[in-house]
Amino acid sequence: MTSAAVPIPTIVASTAPIQTASTVPATTDHKRRHQGDLRAIGALTSDTSTPAGAEEGRRARAGSAVALAGLRHPAAIKATMARPAIQPAAVVTSVILTQEEMVPEPAPAVRVPRKSNRRWAVPLAAFGIAAAAAPVIFSFVPSTVFIEEGRCREFDSSSPPECVKPTSESMEFALVPADAEAVEPRMSITGAPTFDSAGQVYFVTITQPNISMLDWFVARHNPAARFMSHRDKFGDQSQAQLIQAGQQQMRSAKDNAMYVALKAAGYPVQIEPGDVIIDFLLCLKANEAGTECLQYSPADELLDPDDVLKKVNGVDVSIIDDLPGALKGVQPGEMIDIEFERAGKEMSGQIETILAPGEDPPRTIIGFRPIDTTTVALPDGLDVAIDTDSIGGPSAGLAFTLTLIDELTEGDLMGGTRVAVTGTIDVEGKVGAIGGLNSKAAAVLQVGVKYFLVPTSQDQQGPNDRIAAARKVVGDNVEIIPVATVEEALAALERIGGDPVKLVNLPADTDA
Asked: What whole-number distance in Å separates Cα of residue 450 and Cα of residue 48?
């Protein structure tokens, strides 16, 4: 019987005969276990009652049934209920327990641990405390205390180059995914008609934070992360120089993107070459804080900041893109001729070339960071602004170019889909390789974008920047599409459902 079915004692008393008794159920093992014998739950009668017999029990049950019926359906018996003239002196009660667990079992005796068991208590407790504290402790221990990896300070002139000066360096930073976000909300075009589209081009970013021992332990087997030494990250620059160089590269990427996109859309746009100016000389060795250079490149013996380059190794230099051709075939350590201007005065001399620090594959450089003052002359009234905040580097060039083309031409370049894009862009529409491709692929995967356009020339980079490494990171969840030029990028977008765009007046030679 549940608590909802227990009759209210006052109602039972008012509807039962003067002499009432509750029928005692048969004594079962279950009831004996809960309540003992009948005396524990026996019938209490009025002073005038006699022990209940079978007939009285029958009448009592009948009266109780009427009372229960009244509780469930009071309207059904309302007309027949009558208050008896004589009230009982006592009320019959009977409680039957139905929850076996309400009767507590005797508690087992507490047994004292054996001495052998107590002997392990202190070591186990100490181990537990140490295990709990270890992550906190290692999160404050720099990775440089214990973690080192092999690096090469010098390569020979063989093909492919072999390391002739191996070394090991402490790992201080990690190159990891940052984000992939749409370009269009960051772009503003005025003075020209623009066209909406359902698709979106995403540019991808990475970051290089300091790491602790805990960071290293968590990410050591993650293919999307790469550990870096101080030299790997800064190379021959101080931290301030690295930031300045990244911002300059971003400005060049935006200028090149505007030129290529506007020309592709049919707008009259011109490149106005500017001087190639020495921004700063590369630092080969800095202090531990990265705030002071202890040793500059050999170019520091001849060149100064603000010098204007005129000719390198016999090749005229008018834009930064002329420098790689001027150094083609030159091995690190070779001497080359340099002509330049300083404060309006023509000067010349020789400089020993060096190997670009931390780059794979190796590359010969002069040992300075140039400023490209080339500008893009836009049509009158047309203005393009791209908000990049503190984002640096040239790797968003292709993404900017495709977004501008999509904005300035009719149709939907992406066919309503989201497409991530990375790669540099030059004024001829060529797509150049970038760094951290596997980390960028992981960022694309994280935001759920299904297509990722990357430079074909990535396969000429180091093992972590090759397309095969990026495909291992994303598996079948992201389709990685290599492209070498803007035309190839537009053709790839058309294959995945985008509208075709006819390029106008691009240079005929657009081979990668």
From this structure: 92
Q: Is omega for the bond preceding 332 within 30 degrees of 0, making it cis?
A: no
- pLDDT bracket for residue 224 (50, 70, 90): confident
What's this model's pTM, rounded to 2 decimal places?
A: 0.63
Which two three-digit tokens encode residue 448?
């759920």
Homologous superfamily (CATH) of 274-373 is PDZ domain (2.30.42.10)
Q: Supply 215's token pair.
A: 């960071």
Select from 3.20.20, 3.30.160, 3.30.230, 3.10.20 the CATH code of 179-206+239-270+377-512. 3.30.230
Closest CA to 510 of 481, 489, 493: 489
Read off the pLDDT of residues 147-174 as tens digits, 9 standing for 90 and up.
Answer: 888 877 666 666 666 777 788 888 889 8
- Three-state secondary structure call for residue 6: coil
Tell the residue number behind the tokens 């392990």, with chain if given. 120
Structure tokens that stand for 43 in this block: 């019938």
Domain ranges of the chain: 3-102, 179-206+239-270+377-512, 274-373
Q: Which of 359, 274, 263, 378 is nearest to 320 (CA)?
A: 274
Cα–Cα distance between 502 and 411 in angstroms, integer?
A: 12
3-state helix, strand, coil in the chain (%, to 5): 35, 25, 45
